[in-house]
Amino acid sequence: MSFDTIEELMSKAQKAEGRTFGEIDNTGRIKNLRSKGTLGNIIEESFFGYEVNSVSKPDFENLGVELKVTPFKKNKNGTYSAKERLVLNIIDYMEEYKLTFETSSFLKKSIKMLIMLYQYEHDLAINDFRIIKTFLNEFSEEDLAVMRRDWETIVTKIKNGEAHLISEADTMYLSACTKGASKKSVRQQPFSDNMAKQRAFSLKASYMTGLIRKHLTPEHIEAFSKPGELNDKTLDEILDERFKPYYEKRVDELCNEVAIKHNPRNKSMIPHLMAKLLGVNKNDINQIEEFSKANIKFKTVCLEPDGKIREHMSFTHLDFNTLLKEDWEESDLFNIFSEQKYLFLVFRFTEKYKKGLKRIPYFEGIKLWNMPQNNIEGELYDLWIETRKIVKEGVKLDPKKNKVNNNLPGSKFNNICHVRSKARNGKDKVILPDGQSITKQCYWLDRDYVQKIISNKE
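Given the sequence above, the corresponding structure tokens read:
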């Protein structure tokens, strides 16, 4: 079936809304389907009536429109989010670096996309998944400006012979995700003898979440950048400009300036304060459009008067049962560092720590960071492997220390990351796979490693 205009194509696409894949399929393929990966093929063959192909040209070539069928899910709080990133096309390292952004393989297929959203529900059979919304996506100027820099970041690594060091967290909206049946799916790169993982251009799940919410709900995600500002400046530069007037001011003074209550015990105070300093009305900087699209999370770092960090930095709690079942590239630990960027909000105390002393820090600066790929595939992977091994064999607990001391990889493990307890109290415990109970454990970054990040020496 061919379409002469985009209007004709969209009119046809919208007729799929409200229908399940089982209702659409006329090939019988859905009955034996075990993976959602070929749901797009069913739409191509049964709904639009054209043969599935793997050519580099857009699916509706005469209109320059690519078809993408992608899932979303409804969260417990009633909001919608993307279930996964939107994978676009395999990166040919040997050719991509020769192109410009305007002629890139990414832009060639993705400048206009017919996106068909279906709702994923865990308890439903695949054939009962229902298409909820169809729309034509064309990137805004601001988003394209960010994606241009993302593409350039990826291509620069290829040109530097570092395709094997590419990480999804290197970029904001457009990423280079691993794409292959296994770790053995590798490709040659032009300026190094190191084989690089096969990767594909993709839109981050966080970026897709913003897109989905825009089309499914009236929810308004507020941006802090001005119209067109991202065309000329990086997100780092804009953030530094916005925050710079507030550096060297005490936190209680900043709270006064934006009329919010200074309450250090309230964990939402700092994100609320930072959002206000950026000039938006959201209560949390993680709700801001640019942060949401780029999957940027914030973490506070408190320096002592001598500039040293006193505490390690915690991340996510361990789910011991999941740990034994997950693969490395699907693991919680891999995902929080391979796909996310972190905005470190740096504060400094002027008084030395003393038990019982209420100290109010000054706002010192910011640092936008993602973990380098060599650390992800090196020390982080080693931590995951060692933790799995110990849990599988059975964690050794010290009964004299209320089960706080154990043989999980501690702060001396590799000088970058470790496992240690993070619980409300000694009774806040979880059950290990072998039936033992242990205080809740968490993944941490070593304070010396965080110190190097803040000092630009990691």
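The longest helix spans residues 373-393. Try to locate this feature in the token string yourself.
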